Amino acid sequence: MLMSVNDCMGAWRCPRTGFPLVNEDGYLVAKGAGADNRYSLVGGLPVLINFSDSVLSEDQVLAANADSVIERKRHRGGMAFVKRLVSPQKEGTRRNVKRFIADLEARSGDMKVLIIGGGSIGQGMQPIYDHPKIKVFSFDIYATANVQAIADAHHIPLPDNYFDAVIIQAVLEHVLQPAQVVEEIWRVLKPSGLIYAETPFMQQVHEGAYDFTRFTESGHRYLFRRFKLLASGSNGGPGIQFMWAVDYLVRSLFRSPAAGKAAKLVFFWMQYLDRIIPPSYAEDGASGVFFYGEKTEAVLSPMEIIHHYQGAQRRH
Asked: Is pTM beyond 0.70 here?
């Protein structure tokens, strides 16, 4: 259940100092130990970004009323059907979310979940929002009805040890310092809190200037080295990756994104080949990867990440 903006307001913290915020003259103000940082509200949503360490400027965000700098089209009717063909829901995500919810339900107490980059509801994530006992907190760097604040994941404006779980789907490729973001996730999670992440591996650039990084499955696992592994692997195999490659090949030849999408539609059936590809080969040629883990005090060593690899090129 997505929490209301008012219900979340008391949880927000100053992204520079971590101090609580108070409402003064229409701004949220952090005061304490010499700090005096003031944050605007846009449409009732607090803008909690440390602009001294951001790809965005405060003037830019406020002038645009915190709208997305990337055009995000809404597809309806026949176009929505086509969108589902060329950007299919991943069965692996559905299975992982089902397990994630079951694991939360098996724990006692609250079920507070933070969704980073929750401006739109991610593929396969609707059951999280529909669950009556899961309290969903969400932020993004742009305003929508799905977020309670505008924030940057490099400096999560929330308390230490606060959440039972965090979800970060298709976000880590869009941040400049993924390791810093993961450290922030570790900080806001309660002991033994759960993390579920999905990140591209072999995908072409999307969202233009705001796309920075890719991860192999092993690289993704090592990024979350302060977490105990519960599950990891490919998320969208070589078949889906082939669809991406066809899209960008054709759009490059014809200088036309529309032509690329049309070509991708022609090859939509390639996604079904992923069902017969062994996990080891899928891992080496995946469109994306996932990690599901639990906060721990232990740290995965460099030697251990070598032994972690389960792709088709492993040595027996």
From this structure: yes
